[in-house]
Amino acid sequence: MQSLLFDPGVQRIADEVTGPITYEPEVISRELAEKWFNAIRAQADWRSGMRMMYERMVGVPRLHGHYAVEDPAIPPVLLAALSVVKQHVDAPFNSIGLNLYRDEHDSVAPHSDTLHELVAHQPIVLLSLGATRTMTIRRKEPPHLKTELELEAGSLLLMGWNAQLHYDHGIPKLRYPVGPRISVAFRVRSDIQSETWGTR
């Protein structure tokens, strides 16, 4: 199932044909969001990465981490977050990906998730913690309509499996100072041992 189990206050960015993509603010309180942000930032196994750009290796502009839900080393705060998410989204999540945007210079380029790594027709859900960052969501087909969505602390963004076929999404750099943000991504992976982690 890809639909949110709640309706009031849900912002619908894309319909069921090309999505769905839905946004729900204030799923958890600001106080709980801050508590979870601090715990995840302190407890997660953060890693840096490298990528090829313009024929040279450069650092990925954010930190990331990944846990299988059944991993005995998973921080308990992530299981608490999973429990809340499953109250809102009916899906057998088995993977939790993390991205830490340390400041306005960290970002992720427009992209869509790699579908062969995911169980077909299962959703991707992002829980935002920390500073508000803008996500751009752009239709792949002409006229390439774009939405700019402010991802607030304590909010959930749901993207349907098929939305990856029709939309790109990204977090652009900013020209003004902003505090750190953590994105917690819940997925149903077909191979949770894969070292190729999704990025948000």
Automatic annotation (TrEMBL):
PANTHER family registered for this protein in UniProt: ALPHA-KETOGLUTARATE-DEPENDENT DIOXYGENASE ALKB HOMOLOG 3
Pfam families registered for this protein in UniProt: 2OG-FeII_Oxy_2
Residue ranges annotated for the Fe2OG dioxygenase domain, each copy included: 92-190
Protein name: Alpha-ketoglutarate-dependent dioxygenase AlkB
A molecular function GO annotation: dioxygenase activity
SUPFAM superfamilies: Clavaminate synthase-like
PROSITE patterns: FE2OG_OXY
InterPro entries: AlkB-like, AlkB-like_sf, ALKBH3, Oxoglu/Fe-dep_dioxygenase_dom
Keyword list, A-Z: Dioxygenase, Oxidoreductase
GO annotation (BP), single: DNA alkylation repair
Domain of life: Bacteria
